[in-house]
Write a structure and sequence with these properties.
Layout: H1 3-35, H2 39-64, H3 68-94, H4 100-110, H5 118-127
Helix pairs in contact: 1-2, 2-3
GO molecular function, one term: sodium:proton antiporter activity
Pfam families: MrpF_PhaF
Organism: Jiella pacifica
């Protein structure tokens, strides 16, 4: 076996392994998006899904030698970044996630003076 045959075989094996790992990452990310206990977990899952899609397109570009795939991956990366920023701004503007109830309980247990609620506001007003 000469160097060219070895390089071709090695590249084929690497491409197959990378596609298998990307498929595994894709399915694990889908599970995280479905199960994700909070909205931020789902947003991170969607961001990861974009990254996995970029990986798939890059591997296909290497496999086929078609250089247009590089431009597609760059565009998808930019769109994915902007979508993640938009979702993050939405979460900030919304201000509530699924675990807000848990945070309130922890604040009550810790005696946090910034706990929300009518009693906390009234007690702060009486202190002044």
């Amino acid at each position: 076996m000469n160097r060219t045959d070895f390089a071709t075989t090695f590249l084929d094996v690497c491409l197959d392994v990378s596609l298998a790992l990307l498929a595994l990452a894709f399915f694990l990310t889908i599970i995280r998006i479905i199960k994700g206990p909070t909205l931020p977990d789902r947003v991170l899952g969607l961001d990861m899904l974009t990254s996995v899609a970029i990986g798939f397109i890059a591997v296909l570009g290497i496999d086929t030698g078609f250089t247009l795939y590089v431009d597609i991956t760059i565009a998808l990366g930019l769109v994915g970044f902007l979508a993640t920023v938009a979702f993050a701004r939405f979460i900030l503007a919304r201000g509530k996630t699924a675990d807000d109830g848990e945070k309130k309980e922890v604040r009550k247990i810790d005696g946090d003076p910034h706990e929300s609620g009518e009693g906390a506001i009234a007690s702060r007003g009486a202190e002044r």
